[in-house]
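Sequence in, structure out. First:
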Amino acid sequence: MEISILNLQDKVNIEDDTINLLKKSIKYTLDKECLYRQAEVSIVLTDNEYIQELNEKYRGINTPTDVLSFPMIDDFNNITLSDETELLLGDIVISIEKVDEQSKEFGHSFNRELIFLAVHGLLHLLGYDHEDKEDEEKMRSKEKDILASINI
Protein backbone atom coordinates (compact mmCIF):
# COMPACT_ATOMS: atom_id res chain seq x y z
CA MET A 1 0.00 0.00 0.00
CA GLU A 2 1.38 3.35 -0.98
CA ILE A 3 0.10 6.87 -0.45
CA SER A 4 2.06 9.55 -2.27
CA ILE A 5 1.51 13.17 -1.32
CA LEU A 6 2.96 15.92 -3.48
CA ASN A 7 2.65 19.52 -2.31
CA LEU A 8 2.93 21.75 -5.40
CA GLN A 9 1.65 24.94 -3.80
CA ASP A 10 3.32 27.53 -1.60
CA LYS A 11 0.31 29.67 -0.62
CA VAL A 12 -0.45 27.83 2.64
CA ASN A 13 2.08 26.14 4.91
CA ILE A 14 1.20 22.47 5.39
CA GLU A 15 2.47 21.07 8.70
CA ASP A 16 3.83 17.52 9.03
CA ASP A 17 0.98 16.72 11.44
CA THR A 18 -1.50 17.63 8.69
CA ILE A 19 0.26 15.34 6.19
CA ASN A 20 0.24 12.51 8.76
CA LEU A 21 -3.48 13.04 9.42
CA LEU A 22 -4.11 13.02 5.67
CA LYS A 23 -2.29 9.69 5.29
CA LYS A 24 -4.11 8.25 8.31
CA SER A 25 -7.50 9.19 6.85
CA ILE A 26 -6.67 7.63 3.47
CA LYS A 27 -5.37 4.45 5.13
CA TYR A 28 -8.48 4.23 7.30
CA THR A 29 -10.79 4.67 4.31
CA LEU A 30 -8.94 2.03 2.29
CA ASP A 31 -9.03 -0.34 5.25
CA LYS A 32 -12.78 0.24 5.65
CA GLU A 33 -13.18 -0.63 1.96
CA CYS A 34 -10.95 -3.74 2.43
CA LEU A 35 -8.22 -2.37 0.15
CA TYR A 36 -5.57 -1.32 2.65
CA ARG A 37 -2.74 -3.62 1.52
CA GLN A 38 -3.36 -3.53 -2.21
CA ALA A 39 -3.98 0.12 -3.01
CA GLU A 40 -1.80 2.89 -4.34
CA VAL A 41 -3.08 6.46 -4.46
CA SER A 42 -1.48 9.83 -5.17
CA ILE A 43 -2.62 13.11 -3.65
CA VAL A 44 -1.53 16.39 -5.18
CA LEU A 45 -1.92 19.55 -3.10
CA THR A 46 -2.07 22.54 -5.39
CA ASP A 47 -3.30 26.11 -5.80
CA ASN A 48 -6.42 27.51 -7.47
CA GLU A 49 -4.59 28.35 -10.69
CA TYR A 50 -3.42 24.79 -11.37
CA ILE A 51 -6.68 23.10 -10.37
CA GLN A 52 -8.55 25.56 -12.60
CA GLU A 53 -6.38 24.46 -15.55
CA LEU A 54 -7.21 20.81 -14.81
CA ASN A 55 -10.89 21.58 -14.33
CA GLU A 56 -10.99 23.33 -17.73
CA LYS A 57 -9.01 20.59 -19.48
CA TYR A 58 -10.91 17.58 -18.12
CA ARG A 59 -14.36 18.94 -17.28
CA GLY A 60 -14.68 22.00 -19.51
CA ILE A 61 -15.30 24.22 -16.47
CA ASN A 62 -13.02 27.26 -16.37
CA THR A 63 -13.12 27.95 -12.62
CA PRO A 64 -11.15 26.56 -9.71
CA THR A 65 -12.73 23.69 -7.79
CA ASP A 66 -11.87 22.14 -4.45
CA VAL A 67 -11.07 18.56 -5.46
CA LEU A 68 -10.69 16.51 -8.62
CA SER A 69 -10.33 12.74 -8.84
CA PHE A 70 -8.69 10.90 -11.71
CA PRO A 71 -9.50 7.19 -11.34
CA MET A 72 -7.40 4.53 -13.02
CA ILE A 73 -10.18 1.93 -12.72
CA ASP A 74 -13.32 2.47 -14.77
CA ASP A 75 -15.53 -0.24 -13.31
CA PHE A 76 -14.66 -1.16 -9.76
CA ASN A 77 -17.41 -3.81 -9.61
CA ASN A 78 -15.71 -6.03 -12.20
CA ILE A 79 -12.38 -6.47 -10.43
CA THR A 80 -11.30 -9.71 -8.82
CA LEU A 81 -8.99 -9.09 -5.88
CA SER A 82 -6.46 -11.45 -4.38
CA ASP A 83 -3.83 -10.85 -1.72
CA GLU A 84 -1.29 -10.22 -4.50
CA THR A 85 -3.42 -7.75 -6.43
CA GLU A 86 -1.97 -4.26 -6.52
CA LEU A 87 -4.42 -1.52 -7.42
CA LEU A 88 -3.28 1.79 -8.79
CA LEU A 89 -6.41 3.70 -7.82
CA GLY A 90 -5.51 7.07 -9.31
CA ASP A 91 -4.88 10.66 -8.35
CA ILE A 92 -6.67 13.12 -6.09
CA VAL A 93 -5.93 16.80 -6.69
CA ILE A 94 -6.90 19.24 -3.94
CA SER A 95 -6.74 23.02 -4.04
CA ILE A 96 -5.24 24.12 -0.75
CA GLU A 97 -6.52 27.65 -1.38
CA LYS A 98 -10.05 26.23 -1.60
CA VAL A 99 -9.47 24.21 1.56
CA ASP A 100 -8.50 27.41 3.37
CA GLU A 101 -11.46 29.39 1.94
CA GLN A 102 -14.05 26.68 2.58
CA SER A 103 -12.87 25.90 6.11
CA LYS A 104 -13.50 29.55 7.00
CA GLU A 105 -16.78 29.65 5.08
CA PHE A 106 -18.13 26.51 6.78
CA GLY A 107 -16.71 27.39 10.21
CA HIS A 108 -14.52 24.38 10.79
CA SER A 109 -10.81 23.64 10.83
CA PHE A 110 -8.46 23.58 7.87
CA ASN A 111 -7.62 19.95 8.65
CA ARG A 112 -11.28 18.93 8.73
CA GLU A 113 -11.89 20.45 5.29
CA LEU A 114 -8.73 18.89 3.84
CA ILE A 115 -9.58 15.44 5.19
CA PHE A 116 -13.18 15.69 3.99
CA LEU A 117 -12.02 16.55 0.47
CA ALA A 118 -9.41 13.78 0.48
CA VAL A 119 -11.95 11.18 1.61
CA HIS A 120 -14.47 12.52 -0.93
CA GLY A 121 -11.88 12.25 -3.70
CA LEU A 122 -10.84 8.76 -2.61
CA LEU A 123 -14.43 7.55 -2.62
CA HIS A 124 -14.69 8.75 -6.22
CA LEU A 125 -11.58 6.70 -7.05
CA LEU A 126 -13.33 3.71 -5.46
CA GLY A 127 -16.34 4.09 -7.74
CA TYR A 128 -18.70 6.12 -5.58
CA ASP A 129 -20.46 9.14 -7.01
CA HIS A 130 -23.27 11.55 -6.31
CA GLU A 131 -24.97 11.72 -9.70
CA ASP A 132 -28.37 10.74 -8.32
CA LYS A 133 -30.03 11.10 -4.92
CA GLU A 134 -29.54 7.48 -3.85
CA ASP A 135 -25.83 7.46 -4.76
CA GLU A 136 -25.34 10.84 -3.11
CA GLU A 137 -26.92 9.62 0.14
CA LYS A 138 -24.72 6.51 0.11
CA MET A 139 -21.56 8.55 -0.51
CA ARG A 140 -22.42 11.23 2.07
CA SER A 141 -23.16 8.55 4.66
CA LYS A 142 -19.76 6.93 4.05
CA GLU A 143 -18.02 10.30 4.30
CA LYS A 144 -19.79 11.09 7.56
CA ASP A 145 -18.98 7.67 9.07
CA ILE A 146 -15.32 7.87 8.06
CA LEU A 147 -14.84 11.39 9.42
CA ALA A 148 -16.55 10.45 12.69
CA SER A 149 -14.42 7.31 13.03
CA ILE A 150 -11.19 9.28 12.75
CA ASN A 151 -12.49 12.06 15.01
CA ILE A 152 -12.63 14.76 12.37
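Second:
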Amino acid sequence: MQHSVPPVLALSVLLSSSPAIAAGPDWGIFEGKTGSLLHPVSMASLLLFSLNTGYQGFKWRRQRTIGDDISELKKTLPKAPVEDENGVLPSPTAEYTRISSEIEDLQKERKELSSQGNRDKHWQSGSTLAFVGTFFAIEGPLNTYARAGKLFPGPHLYAGAALVVLWSAAAACVPAMQKGNDGARSAHIALNAGATGLFAWQVVSGWPILLKVWEKTQWP
Protein backbone atom coordinates (compact mmCIF):
# COMPACT_ATOMS: atom_id res chain seq x y z
CA MET A 1 0.00 0.00 0.00
CA GLN A 2 1.45 3.37 -1.03
CA HIS A 3 1.33 6.35 1.29
CA SER A 4 1.20 9.91 -0.06
CA VAL A 5 3.58 12.49 1.34
CA PRO A 6 1.73 15.21 3.26
CA PRO A 7 2.02 18.61 1.48
CA VAL A 8 3.34 20.30 4.62
CA LEU A 9 6.15 17.74 4.90
CA ALA A 10 7.06 18.12 1.23
CA LEU A 11 7.21 21.91 1.59
CA SER A 12 9.44 21.65 4.65
CA VAL A 13 11.86 19.38 2.76
CA LEU A 14 11.99 21.84 -0.15
CA LEU A 15 12.68 24.82 2.08
CA SER A 16 15.43 22.95 3.92
CA SER A 17 17.38 22.20 0.72
CA SER A 18 21.15 22.21 0.76
CA PRO A 19 22.95 25.59 0.91
CA ALA A 20 24.38 25.01 -2.58
CA ILE A 21 20.87 24.96 -4.06
CA ALA A 22 19.69 27.91 -1.99
CA ALA A 23 22.69 30.00 -2.97
CA GLY A 24 21.89 29.79 -6.66
CA PRO A 25 24.11 28.66 -9.54
CA ASP A 26 27.84 28.20 -9.14
CA TRP A 27 29.57 30.68 -11.44
CA GLY A 28 32.97 29.09 -10.88
CA ILE A 29 35.97 31.23 -11.75
CA PHE A 30 33.72 34.18 -12.57
CA GLU A 31 32.83 34.67 -8.91
CA GLY A 32 36.34 33.87 -7.66
CA LYS A 33 39.27 36.24 -7.28
CA THR A 34 40.27 35.96 -10.95
CA GLY A 35 36.86 36.96 -12.29
CA SER A 36 36.43 39.62 -9.63
CA LEU A 37 39.71 41.30 -10.58
CA LEU A 38 38.78 41.58 -14.25
CA HIS A 39 36.77 44.75 -13.65
CA PRO A 40 39.28 46.79 -11.59
CA VAL A 41 42.32 45.76 -13.65
CA SER A 42 40.63 46.41 -16.99
CA MET A 43 39.16 49.74 -15.91
CA ALA A 44 42.47 50.97 -14.50
CA SER A 45 44.10 50.08 -17.82
CA LEU A 46 41.30 51.82 -19.71
CA LEU A 47 41.88 55.01 -17.73
CA LEU A 48 45.41 55.19 -19.13
CA PHE A 49 44.07 54.25 -22.56
CA SER A 50 41.51 57.05 -22.23
CA LEU A 51 44.24 59.60 -21.54
CA ASN A 52 46.16 58.43 -24.61
CA THR A 53 43.00 58.61 -26.73
CA GLY A 54 42.45 62.19 -25.58
CA TYR A 55 46.05 63.08 -26.44
CA GLN A 56 45.59 61.68 -29.94
CA GLY A 57 42.44 63.78 -30.28
CA PHE A 58 44.33 66.87 -29.17
CA LYS A 59 47.01 66.29 -31.83
CA TRP A 60 44.36 65.75 -34.52
CA ARG A 61 42.65 68.99 -33.49
CA ARG A 62 46.00 70.78 -33.57
CA GLN A 63 46.63 69.44 -37.08
CA ARG A 64 43.26 70.78 -38.24
CA THR A 65 43.58 74.23 -36.69
CA ILE A 66 47.26 74.93 -37.28
CA GLY A 67 46.44 76.16 -40.79
CA ASP A 68 44.45 79.03 -39.26
CA ASP A 69 47.47 80.05 -37.19
CA ILE A 70 49.66 80.03 -40.30
CA SER A 71 47.15 82.16 -42.21
CA GLU A 72 46.98 84.72 -39.40
CA LEU A 73 50.76 84.98 -39.26
CA LYS A 74 50.99 85.47 -43.02
CA LYS A 75 48.65 88.45 -42.71
CA THR A 76 51.13 90.13 -40.36
CA LEU A 77 54.20 89.30 -42.44
CA PRO A 78 55.92 92.44 -43.76
CA LYS A 79 56.72 92.63 -47.44
CA ALA A 80 59.77 90.67 -48.47
CA PRO A 81 62.83 92.77 -49.29
CA VAL A 82 63.38 93.45 -53.00
CA GLU A 83 66.46 94.37 -54.94
CA ASP A 84 67.19 98.05 -55.42
CA GLU A 85 68.13 99.64 -58.74
CA ASN A 86 71.71 98.48 -58.24
CA GLY A 87 70.64 94.86 -57.84
CA VAL A 88 71.41 94.81 -54.14
CA LEU A 89 69.02 92.81 -51.95
CA PRO A 90 68.59 94.48 -48.56
CA SER A 91 68.71 92.36 -45.43
CA PRO A 92 65.24 91.39 -44.16
CA THR A 93 63.95 93.19 -41.13
CA ALA A 94 64.03 91.48 -37.74
CA GLU A 95 60.22 91.28 -37.73
CA TYR A 96 60.14 89.64 -41.15
CA THR A 97 62.74 87.09 -40.05
CA ARG A 98 60.89 86.32 -36.82
CA ILE A 99 57.48 85.82 -38.43
CA SER A 100 58.92 83.82 -41.32
CA SER A 101 60.63 81.54 -38.82
CA GLU A 102 57.37 81.04 -36.91
CA ILE A 103 55.51 80.18 -40.11
CA GLU A 104 58.19 77.69 -41.10
CA ASP A 105 58.06 76.03 -37.67
CA LEU A 106 54.27 75.69 -37.86
CA GLN A 107 54.47 74.21 -41.34
CA LYS A 108 56.99 71.64 -40.11
CA GLU A 109 54.75 70.83 -37.14
CA ARG A 110 51.73 70.36 -39.42
CA LYS A 111 53.72 68.06 -41.71
CA GLU A 112 54.88 65.97 -38.76
CA LEU A 113 51.36 65.71 -37.33
CA SER A 114 50.00 64.72 -40.73
CA SER A 115 52.47 61.84 -40.94
CA GLN A 116 51.29 60.41 -37.59
CA GLY A 117 47.76 59.52 -38.69
CA ASN A 118 46.25 60.96 -35.53
CA ARG A 119 42.71 61.17 -36.91
CA ASP A 120 42.44 57.45 -37.62
CA LYS A 121 44.24 56.54 -34.40
CA HIS A 122 41.87 58.74 -32.37
CA TRP A 123 38.74 57.31 -34.01
CA GLN A 124 39.91 53.72 -33.56
CA SER A 125 40.95 54.29 -29.96
CA GLY A 126 37.70 56.09 -29.18
CA SER A 127 35.64 53.23 -30.61
CA THR A 128 37.66 50.68 -28.65
CA LEU A 129 37.31 52.70 -25.46
CA ALA A 130 33.54 53.00 -25.84
CA PHE A 131 33.08 49.28 -26.51
CA VAL A 132 35.51 47.81 -23.98
CA GLY A 133 34.65 50.41 -21.35
CA THR A 134 30.92 49.73 -21.65
CA PHE A 135 31.54 45.97 -21.58
CA PHE A 136 33.49 46.06 -18.32
CA ALA A 137 31.19 48.70 -16.81
CA ILE A 138 28.43 46.08 -17.14
CA GLU A 139 30.68 43.14 -16.24
CA GLY A 140 31.50 44.68 -12.85
CA PRO A 141 27.91 44.73 -11.48
CA LEU A 142 27.26 41.29 -13.00
CA ASN A 143 30.27 39.91 -11.16
CA THR A 144 29.08 41.51 -7.92
CA TYR A 145 25.66 39.95 -8.35
CA ALA A 146 27.20 36.54 -9.09
CA ARG A 147 29.22 36.69 -5.87
CA ALA A 148 26.77 38.37 -3.49
CA GLY A 149 23.38 37.77 -5.04
CA LYS A 150 22.66 41.51 -5.00
CA LEU A 151 24.06 44.89 -6.00
CA PHE A 152 25.27 47.61 -3.67
CA PRO A 153 23.98 50.99 -4.90
CA GLY A 154 26.39 53.78 -4.12
CA PRO A 155 28.62 56.49 -5.63
CA HIS A 156 30.84 54.01 -7.49
CA LEU A 157 27.92 52.26 -9.18
CA TYR A 158 26.13 55.50 -10.08
CA ALA A 159 29.31 57.18 -11.35
CA GLY A 160 30.05 54.12 -13.50
CA ALA A 161 26.61 54.38 -15.10
CA ALA A 162 27.13 58.12 -15.67
CA LEU A 163 30.50 57.39 -17.28
CA VAL A 164 28.87 55.15 -19.89
CA VAL A 165 26.28 57.87 -20.58
CA LEU A 166 29.06 60.45 -21.14
CA TRP A 167 30.88 58.11 -23.52
CA SER A 168 27.68 57.56 -25.48
CA ALA A 169 26.91 61.28 -25.62
CA ALA A 170 30.44 62.06 -26.84
CA ALA A 171 30.15 59.41 -29.55
CA ALA A 172 26.78 60.85 -30.60
CA CYS A 173 28.52 64.15 -31.43
CA VAL A 174 30.71 62.55 -34.12
CA PRO A 175 28.27 62.75 -37.09
CA ALA A 176 27.82 66.50 -36.56
CA MET A 177 31.57 66.92 -36.09
CA GLN A 178 32.20 65.27 -39.45
CA LYS A 179 30.00 67.96 -41.01
CA GLY A 180 32.15 70.71 -39.50
CA ASN A 181 29.92 71.63 -36.55
CA ASP A 182 32.19 73.43 -34.07
CA GLY A 183 29.55 73.26 -31.34
CA ALA A 184 29.54 69.47 -31.61
CA ARG A 185 33.35 69.43 -31.43
CA SER A 186 33.31 71.55 -28.28
CA ALA A 187 30.63 69.34 -26.74
CA HIS A 188 32.62 66.22 -27.67
CA ILE A 189 35.72 67.59 -25.96
CA ALA A 190 33.79 68.74 -22.87
CA LEU A 191 31.98 65.41 -22.50
CA ASN A 192 35.18 63.41 -22.82
CA ALA A 193 37.02 65.70 -20.41
CA GLY A 194 34.22 65.22 -17.89
CA ALA A 195 34.25 61.47 -18.49
CA THR A 196 38.01 61.28 -17.93
CA GLY A 197 37.72 63.25 -14.69
CA LEU A 198 34.91 60.99 -13.51
CA PHE A 199 36.93 57.97 -14.60
CA ALA A 200 39.88 59.09 -12.47
CA TRP A 201 37.58 59.62 -9.48
CA GLN A 202 36.29 56.07 -9.94
CA VAL A 203 39.75 54.80 -9.02
CA VAL A 204 39.43 56.53 -5.64
CA SER A 205 35.88 55.31 -4.99
CA GLY A 206 36.68 51.81 -6.22
CA TRP A 207 39.80 51.25 -4.11
CA PRO A 208 37.94 50.28 -0.88
CA ILE A 209 35.73 47.95 -2.94
CA LEU A 210 38.81 46.30 -4.46
CA LEU A 211 40.31 45.70 -1.00
CA LYS A 212 37.08 44.12 0.21
CA VAL A 213 36.82 41.90 -2.87
CA TRP A 214 40.43 40.81 -2.42
CA GLU A 215 39.68 39.87 1.18
CA LYS A 216 36.40 38.04 0.54
CA THR A 217 37.23 36.05 -2.61
CA GLN A 218 39.44 33.04 -3.16
CA TRP A 219 41.60 31.91 -6.07
CA PRO A 220 40.99 31.12 -8.82
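Remark: Helices lie at 7-15, 19-22, 33-76, 94-115, 118-148, 155-172, 174-178, 182-216.
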